[in-house]
Structure prediction request, 200 residues.
Amino acid sequence: MRIHTYVIAVDAGSAPNYDPPYVTLTVCKPRIRRKATIGDCVLAFAGARVNPSDPHAVVWAGIVSEIIPLAEYWNDPRFRGKKPDRTPLPDNFYRPTRNGLVQVPNPIHGEDSLPRDIGGKNALVFDPVWRFGAYGPRIPAEFGLRMTGGRRGERVSEFLPPESKALQAWLDAQTQGVDQKDTRSRACDLPKRSPSKLRC
Prediction:
């Protein structure tokens, strides 16, 4: 199993998107969305604004169960509820046209995010998923997944079957649920240009 780890700046509810029927990662993290394959694990550590006291806290993790090209994601009726007219925290806002994908007006991303979002090419669907929130469990050092010596970008680790089973058993053993201390915001990250649009 491959493990993709990254630091989540804000657990806002859009990337990943927790709206039913599935947890999805459709915007932000383009390298993970391009490279991940079915059966891979994606695991996010808390950024400094999410949990200033523990950089090794796991906010969420999931196993990739389906990979959907962005153009197909827009048209898939299962994900209609993740469009801007259906939820305040959408991730389904790239509509296919003859000339490529067009960004639908949304409260999450502006046009400056389009190259990065569509550069990821795919929407990832996860099952199972473990959601812990900002004050999630600290991952044991023996897994070798802690992001030290730089927390930008993503890391990829290869686990053999016994290691993969041990990681999933550890995730299963942790108490899930979003801590009341979590800051709920539409922002993926602080906007760099327009205050009306928010980024991952």
Remarks:
- Strands lie at 2-8, 23-25, 41-46, 58-69, 94-97, 100-103, 122-131, 154-158.
- The chain has a mean pLDDT of 90.
